[in-house]
Amino acid sequence: MKVKTVVLASLMSALFVTGACAAELKVGYVNTQRIFRDAPAAQKAAKKLEGEFAKRDQDLQRMAKQLQGLQENLEKNSVTMAESERRTKEKEFGELSREFQRRQREFREDLNLRQNEENAAVIEKANKAIKQIAEAEKFDLILQDVVWVSPRLDVTERVIKALSEAK
């Protein structure tokens, strides 16, 4: 973070020192969060992931309901159950709970991995579109991830449009 700040401060001071040249500098900004939210490639990737992980998600939801049912049964009937039956049910609940946690953890890890892969593909396409826009419109600098930017510098909509056309 400090490196970005130093680089940006150096760039800005260089711009102020050059005076006349700074007036000719053409700067743009791209909002990557909007690209991930609005670009057709990002929306397509999200739907793809949703379809890819829907069955596992449903299985986890079923398992969670089963766990909840076992827990409620234990709480409700543990006083009236025989000691051996109660221990058996508690053991079954514990095993199912561990299995559920293991599957849930694997699901999250797999989903995160796939999201990162899909996001990388979207970013790669976006970077190509940004480069084409920068060259075509003669931008000197296009920034991402800034604290604040004037809306007149925002070229995100042009990048999203370019990604839409590139399908």
Structural summary, described in words:
The structure is a single chain. The chain is mostly helical and 167 residues long. It has a single domain, classed as Protein Binding, DinI Protein, Chain A (2-Layer Sandwich), CATH 3.30.910.20. Helices cover 79% and strands 5% of the residues. It has a two-stranded parallel ribbon. It is rod-shaped and about 85 Å long.
Quick structural overview:
By secondary structure, the protein is mainly alpha-helical. It contains 6 helices and 2 strands. It has one domain (25-166): 2-Layer Sandwich (Protein Binding, DinI Protein, Chain A).
Placed side by side, the strands forming the largest sheet appear as 1-2
The main sheet comes to: 2 strands, parallel
What is the H-and-E element order?
HHEHHHEH
**DSSP helical segment count:** 6
Q: What labels describe this entry?
A:
Protein Binding, DinI Protein, Chain A, 79% helix, 2 strands, single chain, mainly alpha, 6 helices, two-stranded parallel ribbon, 167 residues
Topology diagram in text:
Blueprint lengths: L1 H17 L1 H5 L2 E4 L1 H7 L1 H38 L5 H54 L4 E4 L11 H11 L1
Parallel strand pairs: 1-2
Helix pairs in contact: 3-4, 4-5, 5-6
